[in-house]
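Re: weekly structure request thread

Next one in the queue (127 aa):
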Amino acid sequence: QVQLVESGGGLVQAGGSLRLSCSPSGRTFSMYAMGWFRQAPGKEREFVAAISWSGLSIFYTDSVKGRFTLSRDNAKNTVYLQMNSLKPEDTAVYYCAAHSSRQIPPDYRRWPIYRYWGQGTQVTVSS
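Done, posted below.
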């Protein structure tokens, strides 16, 4: 069974930074587009960012542009989400996901189209 494993979540004060990492167990994901989603209590899962297999195409949701940076190191089979200038509204469980294509799909904001998921990592930003 293929799984994605996230790490790097935690508790941070507003204005602080965290870096989330995502690596697959049992398989290489260097050929897949990857995404990050988040879900706050009582809210639907929402798109955060997506990156193509080459790393040349990256999309962000408007609320994180200029603060979050998504990157990948295919040699290490790892995707990173650098989160700076964190705000209390960024508090959520963050999920890593892999799509079954190399390029970011047109409907990349829709979480059901992603094939593989991690268990999530909690990010809490205090005010």
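The chain has a mean pLDDT of 94. The longest strand covers residues 18-25.
Next request, please.
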